[in-house]
Amino acid sequence: MTNHDLLNIAKTYGDPVYVYDSEKIIAQFNRLTNAFSGVKKLKLNYAAKALSNITILKLMNSLGSGLDTVSIQEVQLGLLAGFKPENIIFTPNGVSLEEIEEAAKLGVRINIDNLSILEQFGSKFPKVPVCIRINPHVMAGGNSNISVGHIDSKFGISIHQIPHLLRIVELTQMHINGIHMHTGSDILDIDVFLYASEILFETAKNFKELDFIDFGSGFKVPYKEGDIETNIEELGSKLTEKFNAFCKEYGKELTLAFEPGKFLVSEAGQFLAKVNVVKQTTSTVFASIDSGFNHLIRPMLYGSYHQIENISNPEGRERYYSVVGYICETDTFASNRRITEISEGDILTFKNAGAYCFTMASNYNSRFRPAEVLWHKGEAVLIRERETLEDIIKNQVDVKNLFSKKEKATAK
């Protein structure tokens, strides 16, 4: 997909617009599969929350992926996309028992991360197989907001609570068919991940009827040229060896599961936005675009880095710009970034915009969420229309005659 292709997409479908490259998604899926080719049973469950457009879900299903979901709505989207219930795992956090029951009735696999719900669910549905999410108390991840396996995290059942967990399983006679962990996102240190896996293996020995062990995901992708990333091939080699040894000790060939999201779709995505104003101040040159953190919140929320290129003038002289949005709060995508010379009307592209970008977009300031386009086999395919004012107001209730009479102030 060339700059010319991207400019044509912006012209055809308007801007801002999200664009995803199916070829890159497929390549990442195959890369992860190949890294663990030494495992007899491997299951990749795509994390729907990263990018939940139903066309993307259908693409994942066509590749043989399962689906990792965190809400009943994602479960329903997965079923609409054609996933079989047994290929969907429901891994919520802090949801009601009623929502978990609803997912169980749909036939998807259940993953529970707290003792209270585990006891309630096991008492009510002892014959429904359940996976347990363990918190290994291992700090991993590139930002405190996306590091979820440490001791202060709200996610998972603490390894120090295993005796209590086992007591619940014994009393309810529930069937535990899987053990799960997720330490965080943007993992760089493979040894930390492998250390956490050893904790998971030790925990798994407490359960005699497991079908799978789920190691989560969180693999780091490069955000700019020369950036470091998780060495998937090295991790695959080392974890495969440990996993196969554990299966031999356990006496059963278990399924090795992962739930990649960002790893599969981040690099496939680009976000295109037009420059509205180039503003010179006493110390800074601002490039203000026709978007804001209502469309792309990650830089403001996580401090995430997105490489920004001026595809309207790719060969121009580089200058320093602060790229900002049109939201009336601090809304900065990049500060003093070297970008080829920008003029008003130019189209900028934000790289690594496939994961946790559109899915966290909002209608803040009553702005419309942008269109989404899939670049597939050399063609641009619209997979989500740009919103309109009708979309903004369609669920609002205009109560007739509520304010039809002017209230008169009464002197007291």
Automatic annotation (TrEMBL):
Residue positions where N6-(pyridoxal phosphate)lysine is found in the record: 49
Superkingdom: Bacteria
Pfam family, one: Orn_Arg_deC_N
PROSITE patterns: ODR_DC_2_1
Top class in the EC scheme: lyase
Listed EC numbers: 4.1.1.20
Ligand binding (pyridoxal 5'-phosphate): 218, 356
Active site positions: 328 (proton donor)
UniProt protein name: Diaminopimelate decarboxylase
Organism name: Cellulophaga algicola (strain DSM 14237 / IC166 / ACAM 630)
Phylogenetic lineage: Bacteria, Pseudomonadati, Bacteroidota, Flavobacteriia, Flavobacteriales
